[in-house]
Write a structure and sequence with these properties.
five-stranded parallel sheet, globular, alpha/beta, single chain, about 350 residues
Length: about 350
């Protein structure tokens, strides 16, 4: 039952100049500091009945490597923040501290074809987050990562994930073949490590005349996010599972859950420019906080702390809705299934 580059980045002309291009991408090892009837957040945990029995966590210690880009780590943001609030690792750290969990992380910027140019490096640095690896002094295998998170670009979903990238693509990589190369290399370094696919959110530019979008444009964007865009990720995920059945591969549907929160709950009152800062769309702290909540629950396998005090860098509507937002996300994660009816997010348990 389901419960739960030292290297220089290669610029792919005409392919990676799109929306989630990272202006802060560094070279070498330099650190870079649902249905309309859904009742949404109106339900309380008691009414919902889904948090009566707190599950046993999958782990209390995440030592994670991330093959990512700016929809995971957006630093620096266009609109300055006190710390690294426009990064998922920042919020995972804060939430982990509140839950008495141990969290450390290292990662790098890039898209899948660059990430497949192995070995990776520990490129990122954060104000308060514990680093998991010093790639100048130890190998990837010596770091002993126990989880690996990766994500695809958010502008490639117009082609099936098994087709090669268009443009300058000397290795003839497709999203799937690049991912499998990463999986195979990492599995040699750290046998048995579980992989998490971070499903992000799509490029917003095709849906609007200018930022911020109109209400109708934003509605069309979120419809795509939860339909064709999500379908691409499901097929990508299923093909990876079929190609490597012996690996533990899970998916975290961050984008679709955020899209549902922003359209079918009280969070729909938040102005778009308080959520995103451009049409990439890079998020503001509230978006990365929501992504952090979703990743925490998916990777630890338990809801976040009920008495967590949401910082004021996050929009007030989210702060005020936190008590009901947590079971809403938890319920969404429980309901996500793959093509075989198994839970998409949580690994099978004996």
């Amino acid at each position: 039952m389901g419960k739960y580059v030292v290297f220089s980045f290669i610029l792919f002309i005409g392919l990676f100049s799109n929306c989630s291009d990272d202006s802060s991408m560094a070279e070498n090892d330099e650190e870079v500091v649902v249905p309309p009837e859904n009742e949404g957040l109106d339900e309380t945990p008691e009414e919902d009945g889904m948090m009566d029995d707190m599950p046993t966590p999958l782990t209390t210690n995440l030592k994670t490597y991330i093959f990512g880009h700016s929809l995971i780590v957006h630093d620096p943001p266009l609109i300055p923040t006190p710390s690294n609030e426009t990064t998922v690792p920042h919020w995972l750290h804060v939430l982990s501290e509140a839950g008495n969990m141990d969290f450390s992380v290292s990662g790098q910027y890039g898209f899948l074809p660059q990430h497949a140019n192995l070995p990776p490096i520990a490129q990122w640095g954060f104000d308060v987050v514990t680093p998991a690896w010093d790639s100048d002094t130890e190998t990837f295998a010596q770091a002993n990562f126990n989880t690996v998170l990766l994500t695809a670009g958010n502008f490639v979903q117009y082609r099936p994930s098994d087709l090669p990238y268009e443009g300058d693509n000397p290795n003839n990589f497709s999203p799937e073949s690049a991912t499998l190369q990463i999986f195979d290399w990492v599995s040699e370094q750290e046998p048995g490590v579980p992989f998490y696919i971070y499903e992000n959110w799509p490029d917003m530019a095709p849906f609007m005349e200018q930022f911020p979008p109109t209400d109708t444009e934003f509605e069309n964007y979120n419809t795509y996010l939860r339909s064709d865009f999500h379908d691409w990720w499901l097929q990508y995920y299923q093909n990876l599972k079929n190609a490597r059945p012996d690996l533990t591969i899970q998916m975290i549907p961050v984008g679709p859950i955020i899209g549902k929160l922003l359209t079918e709950t009280s969070l729909n009152t938040i102005p778009v420019n308080m959520l995103y800062e451009d049409d990439a769309p890079h998020g503001r702290p509230t978006i990365y906080f929501l992504a952090g909540l979703i990743n925490y629950m998916a990777m630890y396998g338990i809801p976040t702390e009920a008495d967590f005090q949401v910082p004021e860098t996050v929009h007030s509507e989210v702060r005020e809705s936190y008590a009901t937002l947590v079971p809403f996300i938890w319920n969404e994660l429980q309901q996500m299934e793959d093509a075989d009816g198994a839970n998409l997010v949580f690994p099978e348990t004996p």
